[in-house]
Amino acid sequence: MSDGRKRISRRDVLKGGAALGAAALINPSLGQFAYAASKDRVIVYNASNMDNLHPYDHSSGAIYGQWQHMMEPLVEFDYAQAKFVGRLAESWEFRGKEWQFKLRKGVKFHDGSPLTSADVAFSIDRMKTDKRSLQRRSFRNVAEVQTPDDHTVVVITKKPSVTFLSRGVRNRFIMSKTVADKYGKDVDKHPTGTGPYKFVSFKRDGDLVLTRNDDYWGEKPAIKELVWRKVVEVNSRMAGLQAGQCDVMDRVPVHEVERINRHSRVSVRSVPGLRIYFFALNVNFKPWDNKLVRQAANYCVDADSIVKNIFGGNGEVLQGPVGPRVYGYNPNLKRYPYDPRKAKELLAKAGYPDGVDVKLHYSPGKYANDTELVQVVASQMSKGGFRVEIVPQEWVVFWGRDGVNGGKSPFYYIGRGSVLDTDTPLYQYFRTGGSKRTNFSNAEFDALVDAEQAEPDDAKRLKILQKMNAVIMEEAPMIPLYQLFDHYGAARNVVWTPRPDEKILLEEMDVKV
Fold it and tell me: How many CB atoms lie within 10 A of CB 377?
């Protein structure tokens, strides 16, 4: 592991591309090789990469995808089948306050030690108790983890939780207890899992390098070596893709899709995304402690215009907290219409007849067209009486304990990825004690959350989830925006269909040679 820093500029990429082009003129076979992906190595340019090697100090879809090459969850969601399927667990059973998992036999960690229930218990304990873990709250309801034998894990919860698979198991990766015992506090310098790829090296703001695990228990991946490179600037990612310096990139801007598809070497792969985009309002800060102000802000944002003019129609405006592909969606809800005059009336009733000053936080480059978005929204809100100061922050600061996850960001733009069930984002952002991200608290909403999490009947649970959506729209601790298509660029000889959860899983790729 190295703490050296490495940033890729557009100039660096273009210089490299020019060098490749010149070399190709001298040696055409070199150009042909450089402009096609290889089974020996695939390079991915990502807008965001892991910041460190702590396996639980993150909560981002793209970073979950990186870790899943090395470490695996008990279960994962199969989008084609629309259901959970086993990964390290071959079966599971929900029994009131118990979830029982039967582990696959014959699975080994990268160091050769066998996967046992002790590794699962250790991993859950670390996710639950490690102060750096951003996944702790997923295990607040866990009272005990029992290991009756090497291949059986029983998770005892304080109260019944039908959502434990989606919030406490999916994207929760199992590490080796043997390796942790061996290295102690230095364990994160030696990432060791059961996944299809092994750790080679890592540089913060640079490369993550993995190599194929030829002793993998499952199907052997086609690609030998993987390299993730953090390239924040979208123009640099696109230049690198077209120059043959990378084989896959994320977040192709919608206005570039047609042009990229005309390129002889690369093409765009698109998928309807699961991420919901919204503005979050932290009620611990004035003026967001006032419901009327929160509703006024909702009246100020014209999401239809944003999707049409900023994203070229490449998305679906949210009418409530979640979209129509999410379980628990309420089709009867309508978003607040764009009405700046109504917003001014509400601000006056709230005690702000002359308008109010607010700060809008965001992380430039994290999401598509985010700088343009916040500028447009600031302009829209000004018509409704809000004087908006835009505050750009590096992602590690924005998302960390001095920002969103520490409850210190009053008003911010965020996207919540991989949303399958209404419970996941609404519990995380709005249940009392669910997190510090909005510090919202509402007794009616809390009671609904408790009820749906314990309700095994799908029809009854659906009605409760729909009511939760209605309460959030009325109380307005968020401004719903949209869901977008996710666009990826890839070399034409890469055989791959993107997932809707933003994970780039190279184990699912092949390369035509």
Answer: 26
Both tokens of 135, joined, read 């996944």
Where is 481: in which H helix or E strand? strand 478-491
pLDDT in tens, 5-21: 333 443 443 344 444 34
Q: How do beta strands 478-491 and 248-249 pair?
A: antiparallel
Rounded Cα distance between 128 and 56, Å, is 10
First to last CA, the chain: 33
Q: How confident is the model at residue 35 (pLDDT cuts 50, 70, 90)?
A: low
CA distance 416 to 318: 13
Contact 217, 197 (CB under 8 A): no
> How many angstroms separate the most distant Cα atoms in the chain?
73
Angle at 61 between CA 64 and CA 249, to 5 degrees: 95
DSSP codes, 149-175: ETTEEEEEESS--TTHIIIIITT-EE-
pTM of the predicted protein model: 0.77
SS3 assignment for 8-76? CCHHHHHHHHHHHHHHHHHCHHHHHHHCCCCCCEEEEEECCCCCCCCCCCCCCHHHHHHHHHHCEECEE
In contact, 229 and 207? CB cutoff 8 Å: yes
| Pair type for strands 266-272 and 207-212 | unpaired
Is the backbone of residue 171 left (phi > 0), alpha (psi -120 to 50) or beta? left
For 218-254, the pLDDT digits (tens) are 999 999 999 999 998 999 999 999 999 999 999 998 8
Q: What is the 3-state secondary structure (H, E, C) of 235-283?
A: HHHHHHHHHCCCCEECCCCHHHHHHHHCCCCEEEEEEECCCEEEEEECC
In order of 31, 182, 388, 394, the CA distances from 391 in angstroms are 44, 44, 9, 10
247/426 Cα distance (integer angstroms):
36
